[in-house]
From TrEMBL:
Organism taxonomic ancestry: Eukaryota, Viridiplantae, Streptophyta, Embryophyta, Tracheophyta
Example of a GO MF term: nucleic acid binding
Ranges annotated as biased composition (Acidic residues): 142-173
Database matches in InterPro entries: DUF7912, RNase_H-like_dom_plant, RNaseH-like_sf, RNaseH_domain, RNaseH_sf
Domain named DUF7912: residues: 274-363
One Pfam assignment: DUF7912
Native source species: Kingdonia uniflora
Renumbered residue ranges of the record's region Disordered: 138-178
Protein known as: RNase H type-1 domain-containing protein
């Protein structure tokens, strides 16, 4: 049986009338049409919801992220509303798979055309299989099936994972801005030291970009690979680190030094990573950057501006940097029909002192 036939068989186990197959285009079993249709036309019945979720599970396991990108965003959002139809015994697993798919599709930037995953969330295999570390907690304020209650009258149904703050990113926020944020949890320093200990096995090319812990027992780790153009470790490296770190957490948890039910999420820096000025500028000098800045420091009412630039040079002694226009759509004449920058645009320069650079991120077309 070919790989494509094996995948088709796995899908057929969960086959429903709403499922449209389309043609298998190659041996990889690229079921884009069937997969998208399964998401798009399924009803609210539990069986119809579970069928495409199994498809999502297979696509994630096989690394077929291009297939996931075919799914319409609103479809995934609608699925959250329909999860009440799924039996309680299977909701934890469904939310787990669905959330990972939603992260890949909606939040993390996956640039298939550049063959580069800029930010890929990877959950350790033990958690993916059982969800024990975050779905089956039973403590004050939680029910035995993993839902957390805000108070006696109000509850928030989630997928078992605590979302990272959606506030504006800034340097040192433990997320897109990098840095370490422990939120005063008593076990924070110990888990941070374990994260750094495991990282030593990966050599000098791998650094800890961000580390964050939360009072509810979540650990968010973002790894930065220095030699990679975007700072992205490979999926294998992220998976390996996640496995090794989870093992150390479990070992130390058994001794009682840290909680034994911590939830772990390991990823690479996101597409929205905030660059440090001036430290990161030279590293990403060959890539377009979106720069938020103020012009005219003598004017107390100066307004913020933004642009897509390339770094031209850094003047270390005077702490200034010089920017030039990047050859991207935003900087071209909309009537030029794809023509590159003209001579005047190519010669344009902007010199700014470090303090006037309010935020610098990588630009994604």
């Amino acid at each position: 049986m070919s790989q494509a036939e094996q995948i088709e068989y796995q899908f057929s186990i969960f086959h429903q009338p709403c499922w449209r197959w389309g043609n298998l285009r190659d041996e990889k079993g690229d079921l884009v049409l069937a997969y998208v249709h399964g998401f798009g036309v399924c009803t609210n019945t539990a069986a119809d919801i579970l069928a495409p979720l199994q498809g999502l599970r297979i696509c994630l396991a096989k690394g077929w992220f291009d297939i996931i990108m075919e799914v319409d965003s609103q479809v995934i959002v609608n699925w959250y509303k329909n999860m009440a139809s799924v039996p309680w015994s299977q909701q934890a697993s469904c939310f787990e798979i669905l959330r990972l798919g939603a992260l890949l599709r909606l939040r993390w930037a996956i640039l298939i055309e550049k063959e580069m995953v800029l930010h890929m969330n990877y959950l350790n295999q033990e958690t993916l299989k059982s969800g024990a570390s975050f779905f089956n907690k039973t403590s004050e304020g939680e029910t035995s099936d993993g839902w957390e209650e805000e108070d006696e009258t109000e509850s928030e149904i989630g997928d078992g994972w605590e979302e990272e703050d959606e506030t504006e990113s800034e340097i040192g926020d433990g997320g897109d801005g990098g840095g370490v944020v422990l939120r005063d949890v008593p076990w924070g320093e110990h888990t941070l030291s374990l994260a750094r200990e495991v990282l030593l096995q990966f050599g000098d090319d791998m650094k800890l970009f961000a580390f964050k812990t939360t009072p509810r027992g979540y650990i968010y780790v973002r790894l930065d690979k220095i030699s990679n153009m975007y700072g992205c470790p490979s999926m294998e490296e992220i998976a390996n680190y996640s496995k090794l770190y989870k093992k150390r957490l479990e070992e130390v948890g058994e001794t009682g030094q840290i909680p034994d039910d911590l939830a772990l999420e390991v990823s690479s820096p996101s597409a929205e990573r905030v660059l440090k000025v001036p430290e990161d500028l030279d590293r990403f000098k060959d890539m377009p950057m979106r720069v938020l800045y103020v012009e005219g420091e003598s004017d107390p009412k100066h307004l913020q501006k933004d642009g897509v630039f390339l770094l031209d040079s850094i003047k270390t002694e005077s702490e200034h940097c010089v920017w030039k226009l990047a050859n991207v759509k935003e900087n071209r004449d909309p009537l030029s029909k794809g023509k590159p920058l003209n001579r005047k645009q190519k010669d344009w320069r902007l010199t700014l002192p470090y303090p006037l650079l309010k935020k610098v991120t990588l630009y994604l077309s």
